[in-house]
Design brief:
Elements lengths: L7 H18 L3 H4 L3 H5 L11 H16 L13 H11 L7 E3 L11 E4 L10 H5 L5 E4 L2 E4 L9 H5 L5 E4 L2 H5 L5 E3 L5 E3 L9 H5 L5 E3 L3 H9 L5 E5 L11 H11 L3 E2 L2 H21 L5 E2 L4 H10 L13 H12 L4 E6 L3 H9 L4 E4 H10 L17 H4 L6 H8 L9 E5 L3 H8 L1 H4 L4 E5 L15 H13 L1
Parallel strand pairs: 9-10, 9-12, 11-15, 12-13, 14-15
Antiparallel strand pairs: 1-8, 2-5, 3-4, 6-7
Length: 475
């Protein structure tokens, strides 16, 4: 199975998910859950943190998130993992949020600041002292020093130093958030402001301590897959094609072997999105509207809802490929449980808001389920399967949506298209002023740089995944 291990924290999270998925498949989860922290941190092995007890506590809270519970909602520290397991079996997934911050795992990073490294030569020019607007830099014993009580973190010294001796020490999660939804409380802990959060998931990838996790629906899904009286339909996103060393036909067979009753490629939903969005673009431009943006990236849609009200009239009304695919699934089987499988955290919020999709799991979670069930897609037989068009499968890659829509648009000369490849703080400001700053009347926006292949829940390196998808489309 193709893997993308960012760091040891991600490896630990995946091991936890595999253990929980295996217990759920074997109906032994309640028996094994409380032993997971002990088995992963035995007393005779080195510890990661200050002591073995904190290591085990962190693993316990990671297990809670993997079972589907937000750590912030914990009411009693003595509640066992077995009890949480019983609760999720009885009630299903009930978390009121998609992201949870494990305070015990957060190492309370210091405030972002600038510092002078030992490469400082104490040069005669001393440009750092000249450019500093607050006189926060002085040369002491032949080396520059920053007085943090005066420093305003403007970064001018960083640009001025000819020796690159000035270093900026960032806070990874805060730095990655494009909408400043993560901040420090009075006790130095990080807090996620869910009213600002757009669920892009960049903080999950950025945090070097693995302190930010998704509240998983995997246990609830496995229960449904094992139930004889429930029909479950997998809705795999086009980006899945680049996550495993296997063909789409093999991936479909692996999903069916995992327990799904039907598989509908979300690319078929993308074909509907292409047609509807091309028609909508033509109608809006013909009626005199100056701009239309895509709407298939749910993190971007949340960005507009929470941070860019002025863009609401210009965002496309066309449903996303996921919603079209879910509608197709219900037309085939009215009572089916629809499960979107993709790289995106924000799809969870889109599913909850719309109601057409019952569950959402990531590629990481699917990979854990495959390993737990000992199913390997590359070992499945290869057969011909009905596939969506190339442009629809290209939705997984940045600029793929706009290219597909323009391919269906009559009168392309009227359209000036542009792609926003990733939402960061700089592009967020530009988007808020899109009518002034973009020389375009059709803008595709992807929250993740590179497109869906670079989402927070992927397995394969984005560049390799994109290459694999392009090759599969050509073939």
């Amino acid at each position: 199975m193709a893997e993308r291990i960012f760091n040891n924290a991600r490896r630990i999270c995946r091991e936890i998910m595999i253990r929980i998925a295996k217990g759920a498949f074997n109906s032994t989860l309640a028996e094994i859950a409380d032993r997971i922290p002990l088995e992963m941190r035995p007393s005779d092995k080195p510890v990661t943190r200050c002591c073995i007890y904190k290591d085990r506590a962190v693993i316990k809270y990671r297990c809670m998130a993997s079972l589907g519970f937000a750590v912030e909602n914990e009411e009693d520290e003595l509640t066992t993992l077995a009890e949480y397991t019983d609760k999720v079996k009885a009630e299903g997934f009930t978390a009121d949020r998609h992201l949870t911050l494990l305070d015990v795992a957060c190492s309370s990073c210091p405030k972002a600041h600038y510092t002078i490294s030992n490469t400082c030569r104490g040069c005669a020019a001393r440009p750092c002292t000249i450019v500093c607007p607050k006189n926060a830099i002085a040369v002491v014993n032949g080396k520059a020093s920053i007085d943090e009580s005066l420093c305003i973190n403007c970064g001018k010294c960083l640009s001025a130093c000819p020796f690159n001796a000035v270093i900026r020490i960032p806070i990874p999660c805060e730095e990655s958030c494009p909408v400043k939804a993560i901040y420090e409380d009075s006790e130095g802990r990080r807090i996620i402001d869910h009213d600002k959060c757009i669920n892009c998931g960049k903080c999950i990838v950025a945090c070097p301590f693995g302190a930010i996790m998704e509240c998983s629906q995997v246990v609830s899904l496995i229960q449904a897959l094992k139930s004889a009286d429930k029909h479950v339909t997998a809705l795999p996103a086009p980006a899945l094609e680049g996550q495993f060393p296997a063909s789409w036909a093999q991936l479909e067979k692996a999903l069916l072997k995992l327990g799904f009753d039907d598989v509908i490629h979300v690319g078929f939903g993308a074909e509907k999105t292409i047609v509807h969005e091309a028609e909508e673009l033509a109608h809006k431009l013909d009626s005199g509207q100056k701009l239309m943006t895509t709407s298939c990236c749910p993190a971007y849609v949340q960005f507009v809802d929470k941070h860019a009200d002025n863009l609401k009239p210009f965002i496309s009304d066309t449903p996303s490929p996921m919603l079209f695919a879910a509608q197709m699934a219900r037309e085939k089987s009215n009572n089916t449980i629809t499960v979107f499988i993709g790289p995106c955290l924000a799809k969870r919020q889109e599913a909850r808001a719309n109601g057409k999709v019952d569950m959402v799991i990531s590629f990481e979670e699917l990979g854990a389920m495959m390993v737990a069930a000992e199913i390997f897609p590359d070992e499945m037989p290869v057969d011909d399967v009905n596939m969506p068009s190339g442009p629809a499968r290209g939705f997984a890659i940045s600029s793929g949506v706009s290219a597909a829509v323009l391919g269906k648009y009559n009168g392309k000369e009227q359209v000036k298209a542009e792609s926003v490849d990733g939402i960061d703080r700089k592009s967020a400001v530009k988007l808020k002023n899109a009518l002034k700053l973009y020389d375009a009347n059709f803008i595709e926006v992807m929250a993740c740089e590179g497109g869906c292949v670079a989402g927070p829940g992927i397995l394969m390196q984005p560049e390799k995944a994109a290459k694999q998808i392009r090759k599969a489309i050509e073939e």
